[in-house]
């Protein structure tokens, strides 16, 4: 079982050490303990936590294998930010900022990521209050946070300064891209997600077409 899980992790994320695998398994165990007391993820997804959340998050590392500075917006129970941070523990100088306004979820992330010595900082604040606080990373992530039309303004402070976005999206991503096209101009690469039937949208060179209202 363990060997199959490790193989699936490496399929998703690329080369990762056995220590990283053990850190992610420890995170999964802590997640299950805390999820019994606070709402960290939809209960229906818990039986498939490893595939639905851990591997779904880990696949981002394969798309940006050289990135060491990451920012995750609306991290919730840690997807994808905590998973990326636990993988980044393999790399000297790596750092992941996680922004989550829900205090209970942020407390979970702070506690568990500190215990597992992940190179991460959790910001228990609203994303809108973080633009001057957090430096421009190489990669901005957000999963299940908002449709592109509302997500791009949230990510603008970093994407407009050269960061690249890797955003999990569902099958109807084209409609979201079209709807955001009146206000935003950007370069887009679509990656098929390795879990489920969703996609990862890679967004760079973000520019506003129309002045901010
Ligand atoms: C649907 S959950 C998704 C969580 C996680 N990314 C995942 O995929 O499992 C969205 C999360 O974003 C947080 N959130 C929503 N708007 C936010 C904001 N403006 N600033 C910070 N966090 C926010 C919510 O508290 C919630 O935990």
From TrEMBL:
UniProt entry tagged with the keyword Transmembrane helix: no
Binding site residues for S-adenosyl-L-methionine: 74, 79, 127-128, 143
Catalytic reaction list: guanosine(527) in 16S rRNA + S-adenosyl-L-methionine = N(7)-methylguanosine(527) in 16S rRNA + S-adenosyl-L-homocysteine
GO MF, one example: methyltransferase activity
Protein's cellular compartments: Cytoplasm
EC number: 2.1.1.170
Taxonomy, superkingdom: Bacteria
SUPFAM superfamilies tied to this protein: S-adenosyl-L-methionine-dependent methyltransferases
Any Gene Ontology biological process: methylation
Pfam families recorded: GidB
Keywords: Cytoplasm, Methyltransferase, rRNA processing, S-adenosyl-L-methionine, Transferase
Principal location class: cytoplasm
Function: Specifically methylates the N7 position of guanine in position 527 of 16S rRNA.
NCBIfam families linked to this entry: rsmG_gidB
Family: Belongs to the methyltransferase superfamily. RNA methyltransferase RsmG family.
Name of the featured protein: Ribosomal RNA small subunit methyltransferase G
Organism: Chelativorans intermedius
